[in-house]
Description:
Helices cover 39% and strands 11% of the residues. By secondary structure, the chain is of the alpha+beta class. It has a domain at 31-89. A three-stranded antiparallel beta sheet has the order 1-3-2.
Amino acid sequence: MPKGTKVASGAAQTREASRRVAEPPPMRLLTVKQAESAHPALKGRLRQWIHRADANDPEFRDLRAALVRVGRSVFLDDVNFRVFLYERSALPPAPSRR
């Protein structure tokens, strides 16, 4: 080994490794149009759901985890959006209005 080269001890290597930030999982972002075309049953409802999530409606608070905003643009994280839809489908049906 050349003279003057420093070798990090085991403790120093451990400290460096703990400082590193893990890479976030990859995201697949969809625009509202793309999400509506992927889920045709939501056509015309998705923007209202986003508005209700922004207004802190308790039924739509889980949707906020799927929203990604860049400037005025709104994107949906596909994985979190599918989780939201799955959890929403597990809700009991609404009572009859009659």
